[in-house]
Amino acid sequence: MASACPGCHTRTAPGARFCSSCGHxxxxxxxxxxxxxxxxxxxxxxxxxxxxxxxxxxxxxxxEWLDPEALRHVMLRYFTxxxxxxxxxxxxxxxxxxxAVMAVFGVPLTHEDDPLRAVRAALDMRDSLDDLNAELxxxxxxxxAVRIGVETGEVxxxxxxxxxxALVSGETVNVAARLxxxxxxxxxxxxxxxxxxxxxxxxxxxxxxxxxxxKSRPVHAWxxxxxxxxxxxxxxxxxxxxxxxxxxxxxxxxxxxxxxxxRAGRLVTLLGDPGVGKSRLARAYGREAVRQGALVAGTDxxxxxxxxxxxxxxxxxxxxxxxxxxxxxxxxDRVAAxxxxxxxxxxxxxxxxxxxxxxxxxxxxxxxxxxxxxxxEAPGTGTEEVHLALLGLLTAxxxxxTVVAVLDDIHYAAPALLDAVAHLATGLTGARVLLVCLAxxxxxxxxxxxxxxxxTATVLPVPPxxxxxxxxxxxxxxxxxxxxxxxxxLHLAQGSCGSAAVPDAITARIAERAEGNPLFVEQMVAxxxxxxxxxxxxxxxxxxxxxxxxxxxxxxRELLGCASVVGREFPLDQLRVVRAGEQAAPxxxxxxxxxxxxxxxxxxxxxxxxxxASGGTHPGGAPETPETLPEPGGHRFASPLIQEVVYxxxxxxxxxxxxxxxxxxxxxDGVTASPGTPPSPPPPPDHTTAGGHLERAFWHRRGLGLLDxxxxxxxxxxxxxxxxxxxxxxxxxxxxxxxxxxxxxxxVDDVCPAGGDxxxxxxxxxxxxxxxxxxxxxxxxxAEAHLATGHTERALTAFHAVHEEAVRTGDQATAAxxxxxxxxxxPGAPGFGTALDAARESLAPLTEAGDDLGLARARLRIGQAxxxxxxxxxxxxxxxxxxxxxxxxxxxxxxxxxxGAFGVSLWLGPEPVPxxxxxxxxxxxxxxxxxxxxxxxLLCPMAVLLATRRRFEEAREQLVLASRTLHDFGHAFAAxxxxxxxxxxxxxxxxxDSAEAMLRGARTDLARLGDTPLLATATRDLVRxxxxxxxxxxxxxxxxxxxxxxxxxxxxxxxHGRLLALTGDGAAATAHLRRALDAARTxxxxxxxADVELDLAHALADLAxxxxxxxxxxxxxxxxxxxxxxxxxxxxxxxxxxxxxxSSAGRTGPEPAP
Length: 1154
Prior knowledge:
single chain; alpha/beta; Alpha-Beta Plaits; Rossmann fold; eight-stranded mixed sheet; 45 helices; 18 strands; elongated; A/G_cyclase; Guanylate cyclase domain-containing protein; ATP-binding
């Protein structure tokens, strides 16, 4: 095959050892691309190629009158010319079929301009017939013509060892053949993909859409007119203006100075095409920021395989560690020490540390959260808590110095991480923090708001380098030995280059083709040094990477293929597992080069780069410290695009096998012990990562049209592990992440039901067991996720189906768990009983199954039932048991619900308010340290306790914090629940209008969600607000009969009595209030009894002479209520009772001043 001389770039003959023009020694031909694995076998690869079909017209007529020997001579001359035309342009003849020629461009080596080469070869093939026809006319008195079809697309390609032949298959081959069949003699038709890739380099005219055999839709085609000789460029994006890097660097430094001067955080997004130099510009700015004393840290967002939405923050937090107090403590302790003074400075005016909602306990909780993120663990909290923790850390770090946080590849970030960055951009006040995000334009496809103008956010476009700077970069890189381009780019950006020398032809050609893309320049210079053909200059960055990778030695290509399966970052132990197909063997034992040697070579080629010890690279360019030195064995692809191209080149079958191999190792233990080292206890299985690998493996096998036993086992295991990961995320309260995992599991299960059609089949995965059990776990978790996201009707339908299936299969534990949900959501529905009945009857099967999550829910329901009957001591006992089971199950939702219910018993039960508040504060400082969701749940009843002590602003602050936390967990039931508590605080503060509005909104939401018990509570509260304003008619329409739980019965009788007293029906009013009093006296709630006593006093006052003093009976009940409120420590209630005792007005009169 023709190649180019590395000295003068003259085309050389196939097989030549020296250049015929300058005498330069020619490099040996690279090994064929498909030689992967150990080098002892051939494996097909997936490649983007251009396929050409050429058919001779008139050959049948020739065969009718031409002697077979003469015909053979004509065909040989024809085939020789056609092959020469193909090979002159770097193509490979796959086969001759009769009088047709099939050629492929892109096998065995990719060239970025393969589509253009194919079109030029087609033109040469057509034109070469002129000489052949002249000979045929002279010798035989005849002539021939050709018609040609060309198309580009993905194929599976294999090179036959020892044969100058490529085997390709795929739809692209069929389309190219159909285009050739529809082309008139002497014409060339190209498909849509090829037309788009050749761009202005080829003049072509559209033809009518073709209806071709085997295609359901018409095929668009263009007739090639001619190739444009040496166009100014054949790259896309040439219409964009080229500007110097000085402007971008100056803009960054100006923002840096402004951030420090104004002490206000800002977000700047460097937006540009891949390879244009965003990362290099960020590193240049980072070095200057470090020189000026800034703390610089960075991270990047992987395109897939992330264990969670916040995983990229681990490297960023590690990079920020040098800015923490250096007291020798752990990261968590150092963060807490830093945050404590900042948060304490925001304490309430009372100065009481026990009242300091954002005090040191919050600092400790934030430190614990940040430490989990630093270790790459799930936060275990809602997004708002992550936002607040990051905000607190950056604010504290930015008090005394400028902090620069760089987030690369943010277009790959999960929505939760994008939200966190946006939240920081608007919340960093009083701190010198500059957030620098690097993104491709694709970011705006799924986050268009990112480009909208904002006071604290700036989008800085990064265009290609101007021509002069690009040429200077080529010159310096060609003369650079063993270094990097970063210093040169900084030099260019500072405007200190700009050589006036006329560049040589090679430099000019590289600069022209690179179009100012520094990555293009860097890779093309490296290819030139290795003897690559500069005429294969890229048409797109992906093509450049593919062309570059094709020229690597086979073992390096094979190693990259293994690494691409792991992800952009690949630890050495995982790379060895994928490569070896077994636990890592000692280097050289399998006859292959040790991976360390291959990685060193790839690092020198700038294909991969070593990872720092923190798990990420350091765009700030800070001086090397023990924290920033490269970590042996940790590497990553220098660009995510390289990883994508390598991965796309693997066959689906090979990808599937490697994903399965890695998943099996991760699930085995994920750790390779060193020789002589005793094995350590295996870590918990990473269901998310392993499930993701199994999921990808299944879809690759499915993409091959396979649903054989291997594919079914892989799919079943993927379902099991994704289900386990989703259920765990749901238990942690990460509802959005859980729904994503469970939907992915359901998508696999829909195509490949766990175990196929055999419900008894064993499924490899967490818990193992029958396929039916795995499927049931998935459906149960999905139903719970639907419920948590507010899709109650969908959840109810799913719960009923799951319950029916669980009963049918004898899964008593699952049936009991689902019955708990249905009894709560559909109280009184036939077949499920009350929530208390369902909870009590579930204890035995759940205990037998060891289901701590189910037991936590059952104990919580039992405790809530006792609570609704006013038996708070028994309720606390059940809540304690529920907390025990929730902790064992690591169930944050159940922990939060139980803690919240415990807080309600502190509010309504016999515990005096001061003691109850101290108990809440102790819980926040100890048991709930770092448990943000549970803390938020406790803050709601704690806010009511504060309001009873007239600490209304503190109460509202706590509710705002709780609302943000619970709402951003994505749990739909949280917002109306917090609103009901907030309305109670407003009532205690005498703000009835505000309380009414809140309660009406909460009732609408609760009715939609189907939360019947909480809806009844909100309705009773609204009726009370209306009665206190004398709006009897509206209250009557909402008031339910006095039935149900004891606490509800007492309140409903009291409300009926108040309503009847307002309408003048004294006998009926008194009867209801007496029944209310009897019910309240049987509870353990002094607050319930005090409220009924006060209601009775108001009713008696309303029935008496409105102009006179309250009757003695009213004053007696008001006195009793006052005594009970004082004993409870309820200052607001005591004041209201005291007012009524000496007032001539009823309950509907004016409120006392708090």
